[in-house]
Amino acid sequence: MTFVLSTAAGAQAVTDLRASLEERVAHGEVAWIEHAGQAVAWDTTNGFITSSDDGDVLVVLDGLLHELFDDERSQADLLRRRYRQRGTDLAVDLLGDFVAVVLDRRRRTLLVARDPIGVRPWYQATSGRRHSGATDQATLCTLPWVDTGVDERMALAYVAFASRSTGPTFHRGIETLPPGHTWVNTPDGSSVRRHHSWRIDLAPRITWADAIDRCRELVDEAVRSRLRVAGSSSSELSGGLDSSSIVGTAVLLGQPPLVGRLLFEGRSADERTYSDAVIEHWDLAALSIRPWIPSLDELTALTIGWRRPVPDANFTMFADLYRAFAEVGHRYTMTGLGGDDIFIAMSYETRVLSAVRQGQWGVLSTLMRTSLRHPRHAWTQTWRPTLRRLTPRARPRAPRYISQQAIARHDLGAHFTWPPRLTGVPAVDERAVNLTTGHTAFILELRALVTDLTASRNTHPLLDPRVIEGLYGLDPWLPVRDGHGRALESAAFVDRLPPAVANRRSKAEFSEVFWPQTLTAEVLERVTSGPLVERGWLDLGGFQNILNGAREGRAWAALPLSRAVEVDRWLRQPET
User: Fold this and answer.
1) CATH class of residue range 5-194
2) Is the entire prediction scored with pTM above 0.90?
């Protein structure tokens, strides 16, 4: 268990949380503040936790804010002053990677606010008048009144790649506080309110040059605000466009980062040609680390400690890199996460529908002329998918390795739907689907497990709300030009990229880090005869295809097999 921050409301909830933390409180490892049936506890050794207490109002901040700056005051102190001015609207328009907790003794109010993206996690449990919250599920699982039974629908959704952070978790009695929401407890009861709503700036007729300028200005501001609060400049570097653009932006802002990269053995995963080009282009210091591949004993220990399945290797492989950053004093590291959602062109059919919705008649005229010249190709690639998208009953399908009985029993099909409406422009709503479904928050919660384990933090400039709201609504046809699927990104940051990266069209795949953890006879035997089969979740014919692909080293088999293995491991634990 990696304890960071927790709260309790209700006399029994306070008593139980105090009992679970008593030994660490006694040793000074955990701070404990309690008043009138409300309590806050936090890890005193965690450098990302700051607090400010004037006797009436206590503020505990987990994370960093990107818009409150004062060289003379801590961000927690600035946040306490903001609470004095705004009350429970504290988090409205607040930017950062944070969970903020306020204990107002005079008003007997306990407040928890989560950042708009969900970079920092927050889990909650409620039973009658008992309520507790924490940055990790394991802390809540230790409380005797919390229902820790398996939420089968959420566990199945995880295996099927339909996970979301919209409330339910792997445990029936634990929910997430959605990103951009505030929970408030007073003597009259508890409530949850939204403090952030997405306001996408639709700009279907913006010129290519203006789009480039907008990309640069918004990313500059997102990186600049993080560098100001971080105390150091560091960034992950894969050699792809996204992380390389962030690194180049930091250099041009006058703070060349320490970069960290993973070194792989396999040709398909090895990006050293590109990361070397970035490092040499800017003459940067670099950490080069092998991916962390935990042993079976380590995976079992993590499963028990976290009280949930271990994230797949796409997340855990970074652990030693984060430890290396922390050892040299760089604990707050930028990433390129979010670039795909901004710069990759959305599906052809949603772009066609968006052209109709936004009156882009020139685009539609070009499409019609092309269709007349190549009718068969136009029907299969453009018009048939577009018509299918307009069919109300049509929806994406669940993976074939999940049994139809399990899909029906747990209503899993509801997880496979078209993007929720946000703007009414299909391609823009498709671009925002990871935000609106809670998938981005779920991914960030997985990242937080690994970073908290290594005493470090990630921050994601391309997931900054200012970047999202300013770039998601650009003309959906802009990302593609002259056959380049990420032409806008390459053009916007060309002066920040070495030529080898700016002209790159390939993308690495990292399945090689999965096989040591999954592709053993013992592990495969357990999965195909254990809890997933007993619960009727797997279609054994479909899952056999996954196994065949894994044995052949096929990249598409890595993630499904990894998730099945980790859920199987979790379900076998006595407390699950």
Assistant:
1) alpha beta
2) yes
